[in-house]
Amino acid sequence: MSSDKASDIQNQAARGWRIWLVVVLLALIVAAITSKLFSLYTNDQDFLRSQGDARSLRTMLIPAHRGVISDRNGEPLAVSAPVATVWADPLKADLQHAGLTRLAQLLGKRPHELKAELSANRERRFLYLKRQVTPELAEKVESLGVTGIHVDREYKRYYPSGEVSTHLVGFTNVDGEGQEGLELAYNHSLRGEPGRKLVLKDRVGRTIKHIRSLQDADPGEDLQLSIDLRVQYMAYREMKAAVEVHKADSGSAVVLDAHTGEVLALVNQPSYNPNDRSELKTSALRNRALTDLFEPGSTIKPFTVAAAMMSGKYTRDSIVDTSPGYIRVSGATIKDHRDYGELSLTGIITKSSNVGVTKLTLDMGPDTVRNLLSNVGLGKDTGTGFPGERTGVLPYLNERQRVERATMSYGYGLSTTLLQLAQSYVPLAADGVFRPATLLKQTQPSAGMRVMPPGVAPQVLEMMETVIGPAGTGRRAAVEGYRVGGKTGTVHKASGGGYAEDKYVSVFTGVVPISNPRFVIAVMVDNPKGQEYYGGLVAAPIFSRIAGGALRLLNVPPDKWPEPASSQVAMQ
After folding, report:
1. Roughly what angle, to the nearest 10 degrees, separates helices 2-42 and 45-54?
2. What is the DSSP string of 304-316?
3. Of 220, 482, 521, 557, which sits with the fewest C-beta atoms within 10 Å of its C-beta?
4. H and E: helices and strands count for the chain
5. Quick one: DSSP state of residue 330?
6. Which secondary structure element, helix H or strand E, spans residue 482, and what is its range?
7. For residues 315, 317, 321 and 324, what is the CA-based torsion angle, rounded to 10 degrees?
8. CA-CA distance, 214 to 491, in Å (whole number)?
9. In 3D, which of 460, 480, 176, 170 has the Cα closest to residue 304?
10. Are strands 223-224 and 69-70 parallel, antiparallel or unpaired?
11. pLDDT tens per residue, range 374-395
12. Is the pTM here over 0.85, yes or no?
């Protein structure tokens, strides 16, 4: 019995020790928990609050309103309309939600396609479902209350004038960033800076309360262009019709204000609708008036004549013998259409004599004509800042390059854009003062730079008026009631290291009205097909219609009143 009692005592002692061990361990655990709670409520309170806020407070971007692009009269060319973006958090998306079928219908999807898209991206936290939807559709999406589906507000660019001004204005991408034209060139100032606000969100990411604004959105700056939308519409209509009639590859026209150098209209064909680019062809994107180069041909001859007068060797009545209708220069033959015999400087322009301007340029210093062409802006950047604008080619020629000097005198061997060509005629309309072309409205016209002595340009302009007369090559450029001065150009297109025999560029550049020049207008039609391809037959009529429309739209008074018809009174 004594041994049994001893065993019971040992068992009781062991149980007591275990109980005390458990009690002590529990006490330690309670103490540790109490200590941690005390620490959390004292030392770590700020940390816990920040962690809680991080799971409920969010900083959201406030989209900035992109600046408006308008014409010189305030007519909108590019505006931003409020839209919305529908996106999903696939990880939290409720694929069993009853509103998912309706959501798919609103987004133009099939329910099983939407579920498959969310399931396939289950590990992602962000997925665009549809961008730039209407605010009304966005409200319907939000009212469904589907977990993990969100709506953000943003803006979509809209272009009221559509294809008429798109080559100048350009367009933005879906994120509102400029991609072409002036939207790209002035993207930084147009887009502005987005703002930020602090919001409270629930566990599924829905915004339930706006806490405060952290930074206001800074809207983009507005941009006012120099173009007059009325003139732009009219010029676009005429160019589009002409390209279709002549079945040309393309065409461009530029209208400049002769007093300021401002671009009042700049149009191209083919064009495109920036509001619907679903069928956009890359070839239609080019602003051909600023990016496409061509040899200007006979439109350069007025500058050769001006250079001859500036040299002091010639006056407008000086006689040049162009017989027998051709001239040999270093083994090359330069021809006129026929033997014009003796011509004054005026006659050289009237008849567009290659032989006449060749003799003039070879009688002057090797850089005389080239320097004047450079001073009027050929071979140089116009400074418009337009993306992709070309500078053209105006080569330096030495005295031994007689053939190249001769061909330059009548517009071959150099290249230019249509805007450069139009800009070069501004000094002819402004008594020898050059003002650079600009695409932005000017509150104060530039002082300009004199590139011809006073009196030379008006004389050359009067010579150019004979081109529109009965003996000239540009009779179809006439505008009823107005004096017009201009020059035609018909250039063989470069092809395979030479010139194509059956492909032409038809050009006409002119000034109107002569008595008080208001517009400089340049027209170029690329590869017209059919029997009419001369500049006087293709480009000159377009000039006439554009000039006539611009003069009427801007109320420019006539300077060529028709002579009263003679009448006889019957005597009895």
Report:
1. 70
2. HHHHHHHTTS--T
3. 557
4. 19, 21
5. T
6. none
7. 130
8. 62
9. 460
10. parallel
11. 999 999 999 999 999 999 999 9
12. no
